[in-house]
Request: fold
Amino acid sequence: MTDTLKSIPILVPGAINPVTLDRLRAVFDVTYVEEGFGAVSDALASRVRGIAAIIPMSAADIDRFPKLEIIAHFGVGYDSVDARHAASRGIMVTNTPEVLNEDVADIAVALLLNAIRQLPLAEQWLRDGKWASKGPFPLTPLTLRERRVGIYGLGRVGRAVARRLEAFGLDIAYHNRSAVDGVPYQYYPTLIGLAEAVDTLISVTPSTPETAKSVDAKVLAALGPKGVFVNIGRGATVDQDALIEALRDGTIAAAGLDVFANEPHVPQSLLDLPNATIVPHVGSATEYTRAAMATLCAENVIAWFTEGWPKTPVPETLGVERPRTN
Ligand code: NAP
Reply:
């Protein structure tokens, strides 16, 4: 079996966690092309049966690989992979859910606390010597006390965020397309309905055509002047210009952002806002969690070629046929 597996050509285009590469190299005939798809020869593309990658894969990228059976995406959000097109070609797509929930939820809470208690500004005050020269850091106008939190996207990560916020004694509500069974949080069937009922909105939804710019000026205004918005999901789900305007003119009080509209580019107008606490998409960025994601990414490819079905297929490709035996 190992000999047979060793003859299966797997492509790893673009930089990836070394754990994925090592795990795949132990089993398959792996070609690593650091520069990405542009540097993949047609001869190689004609042979490849599996791809493990973090880089985007458009329909045109996918169509370069006539024998491709599986795309193992590194990350739980797979909006950068055209999974519907892959499904239409009978190609399996996998992602890396669950293993990152806790680290990502930690960052959502950290951003919430940063935004409300102004910890980055307080630290800068200390580092600039102002504690000694000017006195204590000013009292913050905002507190976590008596807040009502709305979670937009009560999925795997959203529930991990909610569990943490329960421990803070906060009232929690949520909006999804459908209500979740067995959770003690109030469900709102519309995002605007949720925003009107809360003053703190945490977005954990995937980027899809439906969620694009769904957090817009109206939703932000509904949070009110003490409103706080945290985004740990995807930048594309927010109207970023409307968010900048709402932060600038006091429509809402503060924001904590891990994700942005056009990463890695963050507009100067957002960088200039003292009431936005911003970090460069670090939600899952610990060595511990990235190793777990890297292992799952590789194991999906291994399971496909050894067991005929991957560990974590994305919903769009659940109808894909099992592979022929190797
Ligand atoms: P998940 O379990 O699939 O949860 C997604 C949630 O969003 C579900 O509750 C879903 O509920 C809801 N949702 C989807 N489409 C919606 C819509 N049109 N309107 C309202 N609600 C909608 O995914 P997850 O594992 O929690 O991850 C969520 C997202 O977080 C990922 O897709 C990724 O983009 C992002 N993420 C970011 C980081 C980071 O580093 N910042 C790390 C991990 C994940 P319904 O299906 O009932 O609508």
